[in-house]
C-alpha cells in the first residue's frame, strides 16, 4: 500500500471522494445530487478519480468536481482510486461515495450530525434507501435486503462500507488506506479496511439514516458473480487467514453459518438424489427449504410491507440461491486457503532442502 499522506485545510470538514470508471452516463445524476446537498458548500470539497476510463468520465466529472484525478489505464479498481483521491483530499474526514449512488439532499449533513453526536467515532457508514432507481425483482431484492441488513445492524459495527461511508483522515492514513494490491477490482476492500480500523481500536458506527439511492440494475449473472467471486470467496479467505470473526452485526450474523450449513446438507441431498436416482433424498431438500423460509420470516414480512406479498414470495428462491452461493464460496474459499498453505509449506521445504548444511538451523 502506497503512502497516503496529503495536506489538510482547516476550513474543510469533508472531502467527498468518488471513484469512477466508465461512469459518464451516471455522473451527471450522482454528482449533481452531491452538489445540491444541503450541507454548506464551504464545509466540503468534491474529488472525483477517473480510474482509467475510455469514455467521457473525466470531462463530465470536471463540470462538478473541485478536483479530478485521472489515473492511467488499465483500471486499478475502486480501492486504488479511493487511495488516489485521499492523497489530494484536504478535509479532516474522507467521505467515500460510489459513482452509482445518488445521495439525498441531507446525506452529507447527516454524516456531520452523526459524527458530531459521537466524537469518539472514527468511521461512519450508511445504507441504500428502499427505492432503487432500477425496477425489477432481482434489483429490488438486492437493494432491499441490503437496507434490511443495515437497519438491523444499526449501531456499533466492526466492518465498513465504502459505497456511502466516511473515515477520519488520520485513521485512514494510519492503517494505510485500502489494500488495492490485493483487491484490484470491486470486492471486499472496504470490509478489510474496516477490520484493520477495528484492530487498531477504532470505533465504527452504522447509521442507516444516512442514505443514498442505488442506480445499479442487477442481473442474475451479476448476482452470482458478485456473491461467489467478489464477496464470498474473498471473505472466507480473509477470515481463515486472519482467523477472525468478521462483523457479527451484518452479513455474518450468529445464525448465518447454520443456515449455510443447512443449505449445504440440502444441496448434498439433492446431489445424492440425482446420483442414486432415489427421490427419498428430496425430502431432506424440502425440509431444509421449509426451515430456511421459516427462519427468515422476519425478512419476508419486511419485504411484504415494502412491496407486497407477491414480491415477498418472489424473493424466496433468490434468498435460497444466496445461501447456495455461500455454500459454494465456503467450499472454494477453504480449498484455495488450504492450497495456498500447502504451497507455502512446500516452498519452505524446498528452501531448507537446498540450504547448505552450515546454513541450516542448528548446524555448526
Polypeptide structure, described:
This protein is α/β, with parallel strands linked by helices and 364 residues long. The chain folds into two domains: 14-217, Spore Coat Polysaccharide Biosynthesis Protein SpsA, Chain A; 219-364, no CATH class. The chain has twelve helices and nine strands. It has helices at residues 27-35, 57-62, 78-88, 107-117, 137-152, 169-174, 189-199, 220-242, 256-276, 282-295, 297-307, 309-354; strands at residues 14-20, 44-51, 67-71, 93-97, 101-103, 121-128, 155-157, 164-168, 203-214. Strands 1, 2, 3, 4, 5, 6, 7, 8 and 9 form a nine-stranded mixed beta sheet that branches. β1, α1 (27-35) and β2 (44-51) form a beta-alpha-beta unit. α8 (220-242) crosses α12 (309-354), α9 crosses α12 and α11 (297-307) crosses α12. The longest helix has 46 residues, at 309-354. It is globular and about 70 Å long.
Give keywords.
single chain; 364 residues; alpha/beta; Spore Coat Polysaccharide Biosynthesis Protein SpsA, Chain A; 2 domains; 51% helix
Superfamily (CATH H level) name of the largest domain: Spore Coat Polysaccharide Biosynthesis Protein SpsA, Chain A
CATH topology group of the largest domain: Spore Coat Polysaccharide Biosynthesis Protein SpsA, Chain A
Average pLDDT over all residues: 91
Cα-based radius of gyration, to the nearest Å: 23 Å
What class, by secondary structure content?
alpha/beta
Number of domains: 2
Could you tell me how far the N terminus lies from the C terminus, measured between alpha carbons in angstroms? Answer: 40 Å
Instruction: Tell me the fraction of residues in β-strands, as a range.
Output: 15-25%
Outline, from the CA principal axes?
A: globular
Amino acid at each position: 500500500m502506497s503512502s497516503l499522506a496529503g495536506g489538510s485545510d482547516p476550513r474543510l470538514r469533508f472531502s467527498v471522494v468518488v471513484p469512477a470508471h466508465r461512469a459518464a452516463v451516471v455522473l451527471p445524476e450522482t454528482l449533481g445530487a452531491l452538489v445540491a446537498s444541503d450541507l454548506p458548500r464551504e464545509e466540503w470539497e468534491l474529488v472525483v478519480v477517473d480510474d482509467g476510463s475510455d469514455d467521457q468520465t473525466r470531462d463530465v466529472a470536471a463540470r462538478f468536481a473541485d478536483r479530478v484525478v485521472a489515473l492511467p489505464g488499465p483500471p486499478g479498481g475502486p480501492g486504488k482510486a479511493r487511495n488516489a483521491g485521499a492523497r489530494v483530499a484536504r478535509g479532516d474526514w474522507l467521505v467515500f461515495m460510489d459513482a452509482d449512488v445518488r445521495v439525498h439532499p441531507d446525506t452529507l449533513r447527516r454524516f456531520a450530525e452523526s459524527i458530531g453526536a459521537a466524537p469518539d467515532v472514527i468511521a461512519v457508514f450508511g445504507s441504500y434507501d428502499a427505492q432503487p432507481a432500477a425496477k425489477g425483482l432481482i434489483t429490488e431484492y438486492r437493494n432491499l435486503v441490503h437496507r434490511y441488513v443495515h437497519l438491523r445492524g444499526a449501531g456499533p459495527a466492526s466492518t465498513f462500507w465504502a459505497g456511502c461511508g466516511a473515515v477520519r483522515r488520520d485513521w485512514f492514513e494510519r492503517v494505510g488506506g485500502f489494500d488495492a494490491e490485493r483487491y484490484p477490482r470491486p470486492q471486499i476492500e472496504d470490509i478489510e479496511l474496516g477490520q484493520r480500523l477495528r484492530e487498531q481500536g477504532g470505533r465504527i458506527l452504522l447509521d442507516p439514516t444516512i442514505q443514498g439511492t442505488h442506480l445499479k440494475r442487477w442481473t442474475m449473472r451479476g448476482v452470482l458473480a458478485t456473491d461467489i467471486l467478489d464477496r464470498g470467496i474473498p471473505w472466507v479467505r480473509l477470515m481463515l487467514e486472519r482467523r477472525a470473526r468478521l462483523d457479527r452485526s451484518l452479513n455474518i450474523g450468529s445464525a448465518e453459518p447454520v443456515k449455510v450449513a443447512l443449505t449445504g446438507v440440502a444441496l448434498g441431498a439433492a446431489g445424492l438424489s440425482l446420483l442414486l436416482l432415489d427421490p427419498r433424498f428430496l425430502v431432506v431438500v424440502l425440509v431444509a427449504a421449509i426451515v430456511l423460509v421459516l427462519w427468515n420470516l422476519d425478512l419476508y414480512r419486511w419485504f411484504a410491507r415494502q412491496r407486497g406479498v407477491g414480491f415477498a414470495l418472489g424473493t424466496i428462491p433468490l434468498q435460497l440461491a444466496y445461501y447456495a452461493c455461500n455454500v459454494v464460496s465456503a467450499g472454494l474459499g477453504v480449498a484455495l486457503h488450504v492450497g495456498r498453505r500447502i504451497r507455502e509449506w512446500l516452498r519452505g521445504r524446498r528452501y531448507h532442502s537446498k540450504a547448505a548444511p552450515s546454513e541450516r538451523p542448528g548446524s555448526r
